[in-house]
Design a protein that fits this description.
This protein has helices at about 5-15, 45-60, 65-75, 80-85, 90-95, 100-120, 185-224; strands at about 1-5, 35, 125-135, 140-150, 160-170, 175-180, 185. With about 220 residues, the protein is α+β, with helices and mostly antiparallel strands. The chain has a single domain (about 1-25, about 35-224), classed as Tgt2/MlaC (Nuclear Transport Factor 2, Chain: A, Roll).
């Protein structure tokens, strides 16, 4: 199927560029304990496909960011991503303290703006959905939707191919994305590494300062 390149958006830019010049260490992807039956209702793959087709239709109809935002937000679990970025639920409150709400709001805004920015760029690509795997981990059902994305590189115009996988779980009965793997690299784990390094440098104040800087850069680029 041919759609606005929202898949590549999620895979490479939805979480924004790294906040600091650190390289994330290689880590294994989430281990699955055993194959499980998918919960009742639409599958993760069906939810993924429906959301992207809805975005494609809105873009084709000239919808603005406000209209697109609802569909984008329904697909992404911002709260999970924010907690994972600071080391997980057990470390989240301790690491962000009284600024947890501010951190989550800023990261959500950055993710959303990068996503919408890439949609607005109208990059076209071909997305092929390969498979869906559903497994259990720590008693919870997790789905992985594998895709292959072919697109034209903006620098040299050559065709490029990426293997993109979406890690999804159910939130209030609805499948949402909580991580993306691009050629095996976990964006959630990359963010976790980045924020950990920033937190070591100056705590949550340092992390939030860099988020604010990144948002300002995105806003400035949007003006050009």
């Amino acid at each position: 199927m041919r759609i606005i390149l929202t898949t590549l958006t999620l895979a490479s830019l939805v979480l924004g560029a790294p906040l600091a010049a650190h390289a994330a260490p290689p880590e294994a992807t989430e281990a699955a304990e055993k194959t499980a039956e998918a919960p009742a209702g639409p599958t993760a793959l069906e939810t993924f496909k429906t959301s992207h087709e809805a975005i494609d239709k809105l873009v084709a109809g000239g919808a603005d960011d406000t209209a697109l935002q609802g569909t984008v937000d329904s697909l992404l679990d911002y709260e999970w991503i924010a907690k994972a970025a600071l080391g997980g639920p057990k470390k989240f409150d301790k690491r962000c303290g009284e600024r947890c709400g501010e951190f989550t709001a800023l990261l959500t805004k950055l993710i959303r703006r990068n996503y919408l920015k890439r949609i607005a760029a109208k990059d076209n690509g071909t997305v092929v959905i390969i498979r869906e795997e559903t497994r259990t981990r720590k008693g919870k059902v997790i789905a992985k939707v594998d895709t292959v994305v072919t697109f034209t590189a903006p620098d040299d115009g050559r065709p490029q191919t990426l293997e993109v996988s979406y890690i999804m779980h159910q939130v209030d009965g609805t499948w949402q994305v909580r991580d993306m793997l691009t050629d095996g690299l976990s964006l959630a784990k990359t963010w976790k590494f980045e924020f950990s390094e920033l937190h070591k440098e100056g705590g949550i104040d340092r992390v939030i300062s860099q988020l604010e800087t990144k948002l300002a850069e995105v806003d400035e680029l949007a003006k050009n």
